[in-house]
């Protein structure tokens, strides 16, 4: 009993618990439909028309489609931790970086090309660099001008997508070159986005483990003034966090663009900022800043994708899916809220008292 | 005469008003030949944004408590869909539907407010869930675009013109027909909402407690205010105003689609910020928000009058203005701090 109690107190308990819950729904649904009960976890190989062998299955799909949100969640976790606010511009920045990349590769005003104007790497790096610049802009406003993060990032939320549309001349720019599709399709038998996300997570995890950056960020998030007095350059740390968030948005934007080998500026990253913030919250991180848990955010990101995939498997249309998503979100955050936790604690204390009385 | 004290908050409001006048004046000079100088152009800005004015008034109240409500855009979409489907497919009367929508607004606000005030869920997350819910519900009700044509009362209300009396701003057009400027009933509703909210914030106990809660929650508690109740009622008020705004919006568009009013919540928030409301709470004014909406509307009207500019320009200009205003606010905050120290 006490083991279970200590387990439930761990910060990662709830994110993992909700993930398991989502999978359980899948299993129950499959049993109800007469499918093999574990079809959610089945991973099979398939040979595509071009002769490649690839992995497929719902689990792979969740990992694949959840890549962008997972990448965004890395940056968002740092931003939330350091500045006690959210960066709502990431979705627009994604679309902006994708737009710039495609615009450079195709040339301004051209909507359909089958060969590059500039080398692929230039386009990708330019897109990511622009995203980092956006992040630095946000960070400057938040760190040095003390503007509330949400208002500061509201600027790019509105302008990012609009500038992206201007860059692409308000059209969808197609880049029909196979090498451009690499980042969004398959690398060997695994979908490349999974590898990109894994790489991003790995690098961040290593940096956090072997340097003191994580501690710095948390110190600034818990008390900016105290951190400054104890010798940290608080503003610089916040600025760096926003820059990293921009970097993540840029990478996610390139992956999303590569997936559809076109810059659909109106739709890339639409409402993605909400998913990223949700991932952070589901991971058991407080949106009020301070301590953070990267693993929680990542699990949260994939949980969101698992919910979405499950809903599609349950034959809910994509337009109606948000209803169920909202209910799940409410349930999870209510369970995690302080008053509810306190209520359960009181309940169990009462039970214990009753036992003692007997 | 009472001397008006000029504090930094008043200055922000003054700058907003001055900017609006300057922008509109510039429009009159540059696009005078395209009819920008007519009173009707200004009234059209009001007509087009009547819904947004109601919604932004509610958002301002929420922002004054230090919270945020991002569910409003989806709620407006849901209201429109309920009206459209109710009238066209279920054959219900529009008056019943309007009462139903206002009731839905109250319940919606009550749930969000309870989650935020009593279960201490972050406003952003709670209203985000509300946003998902309302947007999804819109699709559950109907996935197609439904136009409202069959309800005589509703169509009449939508087309009703209230002429400006005494011939103010009347002119004869190129064909020699006298054009009398008019407003729609929605504008009257929107302006009434602004006046009522202004009076409420200024003179009622509830209004003052909103400022107190937003200014400093701890001292509000120590003063004996019921912080949780105030917060909850503010969210109820915001969602109720949003429902009124939804009806006004629907009277403009006369249809229900799953994607309409996308980004409305950010329009409302940016209007409030341009109008001088701080997201941290405690500072702001609904009159400023009205001018914020008008500035946004004027930008769109200017770009429309030009006719050649890309449709993404209004967004960019709004963003630049937003940037200008928040930097200004930051500078004022710094000056204030320096004075204190």
General description of the model:
- The complex is a heterodimer of chains A (358) and B (341).
- With 358 residues, chain A is mainly alpha-helical.
- Chain A has two domains: 66-315, ABC transporter involved in vitamin B12 uptake, BtuC (Orthogonal Bundle); 317-352.
- Chain A has 15 helices and seven strands.
- Chain A has helices at residues 2-9, 13-33, 58-65, 67-83, 90-106, 120-144, 149-167, 192-210, 213-222, 224-229, 234-259, 272-282, 294-313, 321-336, 338-357; strands at 44-47, 53-56, 112-113, 173-175, 186-187, 190-191, 262-263.
- Chain A has a three-stranded mixed β-sheet with strand order 3-4-7. Chain A has a two-stranded antiparallel ribbon with strand order 1-2.
- In chain A, a hairpin with a 5-residue loop joins strand 1 (44-47) and strand 2 (53-56).
- In chain A, helix 5 (90-106) runs antiparallel to helix 6 (120-144) and helix 6 (120-144) packs antiparallel against helix 11.
- The radius of gyration of chain A is 22 Å and the shape is globular.
- The mean pLDDT of chain A is 86.
- Chain B is mainly alpha-helical and 341 residues long.
- Chain B has one domain: ABC transporter involved in vitamin B12 uptake, BtuC, CATH 1.10.3470.
- Chain B is built from 14 helices and six strands.
- In chain B, a hairpin with a 5-residue loop joins strand 3 (171-172) and strand 4 (178-179).
- In chain B, helix 2 crosses helix 13, helix 3 crosses helix 9 (205-215) and helix 5 runs antiparallel to helix 6.
- The longest helix of chain B is centred in the last third of the chain and has 28 residues, at 313-340.
- Chain B is globular.
- The chains are: A mainly alpha (358), B mainly alpha (341).
- At the A-B interface, helix 7, helix 12, helix 14 and helix 15 of A face helix 6, helix 12 and helix 14 of B.
